[in-house]
Amino acid sequence: MTLDQALAFALMGVTIGFFLWGRFAYDAVALGALLAGVLLGVVPADKAFEGFSDDVVLIVAAALVISQAVARSGAVETILRPITPRLRTVSVQVPVLVGATMLLSVFTKNVGALAIMMPVALQIARRTGTPPAAMLMPMAAAAMVGGVVTLVGTAPNIIMSRVREELTGTPFHMFDYTPVGLGVCAVALLFLSVGWRLLPGGRRGAASMEAAFNISHYTLEARLPDEGEAVGLTVAELEALAEGEVQVSAVLPPRQSSPDGADEAMAKGAGAEPSPDHPLPAGQALILRGEPADLERLVARAELILAEDEFTRDDPDTDADDQQVMEGVITGDSPMVGRTPAALSLRNRHGLSLLAVSRRGERHIQERLSDLRLRAGDVVLLRGLAASMPDKMGELRVLPLAERDMALGRGRRSWIPLAVLAAAMAIVAAGLLPIAVAFFGAVVAMFALRVMSARDAYQAVDWPVVVLLAALIPVSGAIQHTGGTDLLAGWLTGAVQGLPGMAALGVTMMLAMAVTPFLNNAATVLVMGPIAATLASKLGLNPDPFLMAVALGAASDFLTPIGHQCNTLVMGPGGYRFGDYARLGLPLSILMLLVGVPLIALFWPLAPH
């Protein structure tokens, strides 16, 4: 072993040790490792920052942005809407949610797919009384398994494609993973449909930020469109569109135009409390009451028009992406106390729109929000320009609440993100553009079509993961460039010498599965990929199945809550403990090994070309 090899191994060993210790953030450890590599001389100074320009970093970041756009579009909820009322028992809920998550993760980043499906699962759990713990961990496992089907489903596949290109000159393509991936997905789906019973009962999810707010239902004003699904429905039928989670508190009298043609309503007074069979004609104004998420779903599904949206004028100097929605509580010394939004000229003078109000001690608000006299302690949902919102709320002495994601008033649901994603996938599959360019183009298209703002895109990117990847690429490359991979492959070759090729393939996948719960799966691929390829060469076998085995093993990270973001994401809402993951993850890992190795050998023959 040369000095450079020893230094490269020592650097990687110390880095892994810090990862396992968990005292410092992963991205900080990776950056420290990169700096140490440069100072030790095992990472050339002129190549230290090549990772930040690597295609894999762009692909992962773009996949997260696209996944967030799809999640916000509500398209998945719309697709699942016909079947969600039928999901009444856990034995039906788990297979459907697992299958949907698995299918979605085939085409989007697996973390994004899980983030899209989790609100659906939690909504079903709330409605049916099913413990979220029975659904969330199987869904997390399904997201990870579904991600192995295509190039873009999971980071290990993307990174392994790059590793293969460096080693052989040809990367893995979009659907090279698909034959093996579909096979393991079928087995995983069957197992997870019944395997949820291995999880302990009685787990309760951690209290969320939503619970911390403990805010009474919001009240908002909206009207029916001139045509659409909701026109002509009764009050009861409209409430049924929200699955009973939104109440129609009042139907309002028609607006009257002022003599000078101003847009402000002249009709005053409260609306009438409707009977369940009251018909709702086109243009009928309503007062609705419910949780913000439920209100947003009903507004989107029934294509209702928020009262404030009717008066929002197009400003050529203002982009809709600059709009922000914030929650705040009216303080006792606010100039809003005792006055109505109309009297305050809230929209014209302050540039704010009052979307909804929550008032304790008053179950039903039955008057137009523009005519509602505001009180100290009212919680209001305000929309305005992001740049001026803090100043405006300060002027009005409205105390902002801790930030939480509020979809209400931030735009309508759309099929555009799914269409853009499908177009990008088709372009890559046809070989017209590289994956990095296609996904970068998809993000730009999202901006151009105004389905996502730049601010939302920056928030969607998991920057610590991006920094981790960019910093570890040159660090892991140090082992290869110093000849360390050849050395490790020699040791591994001695360990598997005399074993059949299938057994060597199984050992390779098992090592990747053993390492990835404790080392980030991206780092596992970066380190083990070159080692596996060198091992195959020493055994006189085709390197491709060994690369596939590492990618599949690194993606099969079911054993701990810290190894993969999907596992971490469900830990709090599911109320899981560290040991719960092995209950479901260990048998699933064994299944992946028993099924994955033969499938890899079948579709990627071990014999050299």
Automatic annotation (TrEMBL):
Gene Ontology process terms (BP): potassium ion transport
The keyword Nucleus is annotated on this UniProt entry: no
One Gene Ontology MF term: monoatomic cation transmembrane transporter activity
TM annotation in the entry: 7-24, 30-49, 56-76, 96-122, 134-160, 180-199, 416-449, 461-479, 491-512, 518-539, 546-564, 584-607
Keywords: Membrane, Repeat, Transmembrane, Transmembrane helix, Transport
One Pfam family recorded for the sequence: TrkA_C
Taxonomy, superkingdom: Bacteria
Subcellular location(s) of the protein: Membrane
A Gene Ontology term for the protein's cellular component: plasma membrane
Record-linked PROSITE patterns: RCK_C
Membrane topology: Multi-pass membrane protein
Residue ranges, annotated region (Disordered): 252-280
Ranges for domain RCK C-terminal: 313-399
Protein name as catalogued: SLC13 family permease
